[in-house]
TrEMBL record:
<dbReference type="InterPro" id="IPR002821">
    <property type="entry name" value="Hydantoinase_A"/>
</dbReference>
<feature type="domain" description="Hydantoinase A/oxoprolinase">
    <location>
        <begin position="205"/>
        <end position="491"/>
    </location>
</feature>
<dbReference type="InterPro" id="IPR043129">
    <property type="entry name" value="ATPase_NBD"/>
</dbReference>
<dbReference type="InterPro" id="IPR049517">
    <property type="entry name" value="ACX-like_C"/>
</dbReference>
<dbReference type="InterPro" id="IPR008040">
    <property type="entry name" value="Hydant_A_N"/>
</dbReference>
<dbReference type="Pfam" id="PF05378">
    <property type="entry name" value="Hydant_A_N"/>
</dbReference>
<feature type="domain" description="Acetophenone carboxylase-like C-terminal">
    <location>
        <begin position="509"/>
        <end position="671"/>
    </location>
</feature>
<protein>
    <submittedName>
        <fullName>5-oxoprolinase</fullName>
    </submittedName>
</protein>
<dbReference type="Pfam" id="PF19278">
    <property type="entry name" value="Hydant_A_C"/>
</dbReference>
<feature type="domain" description="Hydantoinase/oxoprolinase N-terminal">
    <location>
        <begin position="4"/>
        <end position="184"/>
    </location>
</feature>
<dbReference type="Pfam" id="PF01968">
    <property type="entry name" value="Hydantoinase_A"/>
</dbReference>
<dbReference type="InterPro" id="IPR045079">
    <property type="entry name" value="Oxoprolinase-like"/>
</dbReference>
Length: 691
């Protein structure tokens, strides 16, 4: 019997999911995160999951981890001090940046421009030049390189990034500067732009490389520490880390390229949601992951998450492949407040986090949060996380009463309902960003809700979006960990060309794709994945000649050599996507900018759980009657134990369904049908409960 272990570390909770690969049986643990050292919470959760399964740590196989270490280093400004080496004349590349200011009208007047991750005083220029075609224009002056690197000695830099002009076309100068840096600055981690991001555009390549260098020391320390503690505690399997695009890489690769981990945590949820939705027969869906600190949303079409070429964390935007996830500061710990100037209720983005947490946690928190509002409304039971967190209803009422007093509302319940309405609208706005704003109608998609707080708000979000059914997976509070444990190893190879279609041929393009495929496969075969088990997909970043941006288009490699394949098929696919996004096409020559090959190892063979068949009556799972707030007053609602529900049961709202790691709220005039796979499918009662 073998076990896989998924680990997801969030801002509030650390989730552990232990999976029996033979039967698909799962064992969950949810424990408070330990921001000072995330590995403490991870190991504590592993012990709890092993105890639930009745096994020893030594029986745990491979560990798959979605981490926020890189994300937090950026958000909290705790990255390493980075030195930057540029080509002579490009020293201020980060200061010039891009002429874009976030915010509304006249936002530039009050926008505080963030400080670059590499300070100007820690940036040096070296002489030598590569042309855009890869030819050497000026030879690298190695004496100058040594002089400039020595200028960084004593400045306290903890990492070095090297980004020379046009190095994507020829990395020779960068590689040589890296070799010299190893001699002049021993012990300093070095990031080369030609390795981190071998693509066009100097600023994007430079900021991405600097970001990689900034988080590399912290990620490397964390990964090494966790690997060592896992090994010392008896876990014999290897440690793999989830990338931002939903694929896994070895711990060593993750340490070398941590910029690809900035959305590691949210990517696990989207991957897990695809696994669950496939079992219910829904291939198109929106994901809604509400945790304690934030909510992440994404769109999945035909079980394939939309992949973006940029990753944004706080004020930082880097060029790194990631699942197209949008995040809002709305979670169970989001704090409700009434600004004195406007006297209008606001919720978030400030969060009570894991410490002190919501007032209901009785751990020192006093400010009203979304969790406190749910407690006041009767949506939450008296304990969370399998009894690890006991709730204090009176503390929640006291906190929410401050909102009632500040807004003049006549009851604490009305104030709590207002908090819930506002946070739901905030999350609805995020869902519109990944659907309506991208040209998709949310009514054509299901909604998969997870995270510790997601199922509480899922029914309301389904009503706002018109996305039915709302799917509540088994173990929704630890679905990100489930995604971590059920995805596969992945790597990609990239080449920038910048060629008009008239300058390319199908045969030449196919030869480049074959080279990229071999490169992407090589990393995974080195990890022990059999060559025949690998699957390679291809994409191209295309634009109209003269256009200032690109659109990624998938390449159907199976149809590439046939009639209508190759460049003709690429042009047609690009026109169709451009028309979908912008409602027009141009009679202009197409241009290929970048090619990508992505290699994936096979997904693990994990057995699927199938619930015992029952009828529509869920009364055997009913544990008590309870009062919740609905439509302006308290109403009776049944409380169900999800572990006792059977396939085919239909729970009619208002109702509360409890489980170890989450709580599901079914609203009046809605019903939750239990799918054989264990998911709850919520729909309005006037819609069919089938499927």
């Amino acid at each position: 019997m073998t076990y896989r272990l998924g680990v997801d570390v969030g801002g509030t909770f650390t989730d552990i999911l232990l999976i029996d690969e033979d039967t698909g049986a799962t064992f969950r643990a949810k424990t408070s995160s330990t921001p000072e050292d995330q590995s403490v919470g991870v190991l504590r959760g592993i012990d709890q999951a092993c105890a639930a399964a009745g096994i020893d740590r030594s029986e745990v196989g491979d560990v798959f981890h979605g981490t926020t270490v890189a994300t937090n280093a950026i958000l909290e400004g705790k990255g390493a001090r980075v030195g930057l080496v540029t080509t002579h004349g490009f020293r201020q590349v980060l200061q010039i940046a891009r002429s874009f200011v976030p915010g509304g009208l006249a936002g530039w007047i009050i926008w505080p421009k963030p400080e670059p991750l590499a300070a100007l005083e820690d940036t040096v220029e070296v002489r030598g030049r590569i042309g855009s075609d890869g030819a050497v224009v000026d030879e690298l002056d190695e004496d100058d390189v040594r002089t400039q690197l020595r200028a960084l000695v004593g400045r306290g830099i903890e990492a070095l990034s090297i980004s020379l002009i046009n190095s994507y076309a020829n990395p020779a100068h960068e590689q040589r500067v890296g070799e010299i840096a190893a001699e002049e600055l021993p012990g300093i981690a070095v990031s080369l732009s030609s390795s981190v991001l071998p693509e066009l555009r100097e600023y994007e390549r430079t900021i991405t490389t600097v970001a990689n260098a900034a988080v590399q020391p912290q990620v490397k320390r964390y990964v090494a520490n966790l690997e060592g503690q896992l090994r010392d505690s008896g876990v014999s399997g290897s440690l793999s880390i989830l990338r931002s695009d939903g694929g896994l890489v070895s711990a060593a690769v993750a340490s070398d390229n941590p910029v690809n981990l900035l959305l590691s945590g949210p990517a696990g949820g989207v991957t897990g949601a695809a696994w669950v939705a496939a079992q219910t027969g829904h291939r198109n869906f929106l994901t809604f992951d509400m945790g304690g600190t934030s909510t992440d949303v994404a769109l999945v079409e035909d079980l394939t998450p939309r992949i973006g070429r940029e990753t944004t964390v706080g004020d930082l935007k880097v060029r790194a492949t990631s699942v197209d996830v949008r995040t809002v500061g709305a979670g169970g710990g989001s704090i409700a407040h009434v600004p004195p100037l406007t006297q209008a209720l606001r919720v978030g983005p400030q969060s009570a986090g894991a410490a002190p947490g919501p007032a209901a946690y009785a751990a020192g928190g006093t400010e009203p949060t979304v969790t406190d509002a749910n407690v006041v409304l009767g949506h939450l039971p008296s304990a969370l996380a399998g009894g690890e967190v006991t709730l204090d209803p009176e503390a929640a009422r006291t906190a929410v009463k401050t909102i009632a007093d500040a807004t003049g509302l006549d009851s604490v319940e009305a104030a709590a309902a207002g908090i819930i309405d506002i946070v739901n609208e905030n999350m609805f706005g995020a869902l519109r960003l990944v659907s309506v704003q991208q040209g998709f109608d949310p009514r054509d998609f299901a909604l998969v809700a997870f995270g510790g707080a997601g199922p509480l708000h899922a029914n309301a979000l389904g009503r706002l979006t018109g996305s039915w059914p709302v799917i509540i997976p088994p173990s929704p509070g630890v679905l990100c960990a489930y995604g971590d444990a059920t995805t596969s190893l992945r790597d990609e190879a990239v080449r920038t060309l910048v060629r008009r279609f008239s300058e390319l041929s199908d045969d030449g393009l196919r030869a480049i794709l074959d080279d990229l495929s071999a490169s992407a496969r090589g990393t995974l075969t080195a990890e022990g994945v059999p060559e025949d088990d690998l699957r390679v997909t291809f994409s191209a970043d295309l634009r109209y000649h003269g256009q200032g941006f690109e659109i990624p288009v998938a390449i159907d490699i199976d149809a590439f050599d046939g009639a209508g394949g190759g460049l003709a098929a690429l042009a047609k696919a690009f026109d169709a996507e451009h028309d979908r996004l912008f409602s027009f096409v141009l009679d202009t020559e197409h241009e290929l900018v970048t090619l990508r090959a992505t290699a994936d190892a096979p997904r693990p063979e994990v057995g699927a759980v199938e619930l015992e068949q029952g009828d529509t009556d869920p009364s055997a799972a009913r544990v008590q009657e309870h009062q919740i707030w609905a439509d302006g007053g308290m109403v009776d609602a049944d409380v169900y134990d999800r572990s006792l529900l059977k396939s085919g049961n239909v729970v009619v709202g208002p109702a509360v369904i409890t489980e170890m790691d989450s709580t599901t709220l079914v609203l009046r005039d809605h019903a939750a049908a239990v799918h054989p796979s264990g998911s709850l499918l919520i729909r309005p009662v006037d819609q069919s409960q089938e499927g």
